[in-house]
Amino acid sequence: MTALAPFVEIICMEFNVARSIEILSATPGTLQSLLGNLSEEWTTSSGIEAKRKAEIWSPYDIIGHLLHADETDWIPRARIILGRGDDLTFVPFDRFAQFENSKGKSLAQLLDEFGRLRTENIGILRAWNLTDAQLDLEGVHPELGRVTLRQLLATWVVHDLNHVRQVATSIAKRYEAEVGPWKEYLSILSP
Amino acid sequence: MTALAPFVEIICMEFNVARSIEILSATPGTLQSLLGNLSEEWTTSSGIEAKRKAEIWSPYDIIGHLLHADETDWIPRARIILGRGDDLTFVPFDRFAQFENSKGKSLAQLLDEFGRLRTENIGILRAWNLTDAQLDLEGVHPELGRVTLRQLLATWVVHDLNHVRQVATSIAKRYEAEVGPWKEYLSILSP
Q1: Residues 55-94 of B with CB under 8 A from A
Q2: Smallest Cα–Cα separation from A77: which of A25, A142, A32, A22?
Q3: Is A186 in a helix, a strand, or coil?
Q4: Fewer beta carbons below 10 Å: N end or C end of chain B?
């Protein structure tokens, strides 16, 4: 393992609220730049039967999911932790809520709503001015058990990037058959 | 396989120059939004020994790679195909050139250069007004053999998305240890 030490040492970052806010602030603009001017062919999966839709999310589905998470997951869970009430268990997060909630909304609307809500949520996070002691406070995840506020906020950041990655993948796969023999060089097209 | 048919049918898109330009145009702004305001901790891997650097690219390395590809790969190769000269074999692409070429440049400079060059290249592509017959023309890839102009241009699009995805992954992995038990839910952190 010695050979890996320089990588691990330099690439792993310690959690930091200000650094986290850099990523959280960048996400709406990133998705707006990526998706804002694309034809619907790239961004939706209308017509796919519901069961498969739940497996293979379109960019449209993913933005609805990010919006729902900003509404019901990160800040509400942080509030449960910081509130120190009798029950520190989080409300389970519905990972499929966007299939109902987004109905009738355009992608542009979802991107706008997400951007607005994210700005609000970052304002709340910033105003908390969290101390290390607060970041160490725990809540209870319904499946994962005890987790700290620090882990919740780090997960918010990585969750954003996870879905930026998923948007890129969802778009790229539409051209899977078109790249011909280059497919083997493009890891985004591997199953 | 019948159950998969609706997905394949709807999600696979046929190659189209205008649709491709939508993605190619979006990439520089996407990367600017994602990376433009991040601390260097998120974007570089300075100090990593060269051998591992070649394996694990930082966002900084990836932007240098995209810039180099716009300089030496897509349009130059399309010119070889469209030129119909005696030798239709592409010049091999150096996938590690950025480690030399980017030296002394800031990430902001690389992002600017990439954005400018991409705008130029899209202008060239648009002005060609390619016909289906031209898109069917072939060149010879040094490793993959005969490929069409259509496949080359589709690969340009997917290559962009592949590296947007890689940038997101490179950033996310820096918080791998910080998310605690949530790691199992975040596919971006799987090896």
Answers
A1: 56
A2: A142
A3: coil
A4: C
For residue A49, the 8-state DSSP code is -
How far from B177 is each of A24, A49, A155, A165, B183, CA to CA, in Å?
A: 18, 37, 10, 19, 8
The answer to whether residue B187 neighbours chain A at the CB level (below 8 Å) is yes
Whole-model pTM: value is: 0.93
- Residue B169 confidence (pLDDT): 96
Question: What is the distance between the alpha carbons of residues A89 and B166, in angstroms, rounded to a whole number?
Answer: 35
Asked if B44 contacts B62 with a C-beta cutoff of 8 angstroms, the reply is no
Helix (H), strand (E) at residue A171 = helix A149-172
Q: Using one digit for the tens of pLDDT, what is the confidence trace for B74-102? A: 999 999 999 999 999 999 888 888 888 88
Work out the burial of residue B69: count CB atoms within 10 Å of its CB; fewer than 13 is exposed, 13-18 middle, 19 or more buried. Answer: buried
Phi, psi of A166 (to 5 degrees): -70, -35
- Rg, Å, chain B Cα set: 19
Q: Which element (helix H / strand E) includes B148?
A: strand B145-148
Q: Which residues of B touch A145 (CB under 8 A)?
A: 181
3-state percent helix, strand, coil for chain B, nearest multiple of 5: 70, 5, 30
Is B158 within 8 Å of A19 when comparing Cβ atoms? no
C-alpha distances in Å from residue A85, one per residue of A71, A75, A78, A79, B37: 21, 16, 12, 10, 37
| Neighbour-count burial of B67, counting CB atoms closer than 10 A to its CB (0-12 exposed, 13-18 middle, 19+ buried) | buried
Length of chain B: 191
Give the pair of three-digit tokens for residue B82: 């469209």
Of B171, B184, B181, the C-alpha closest to B60 is B171
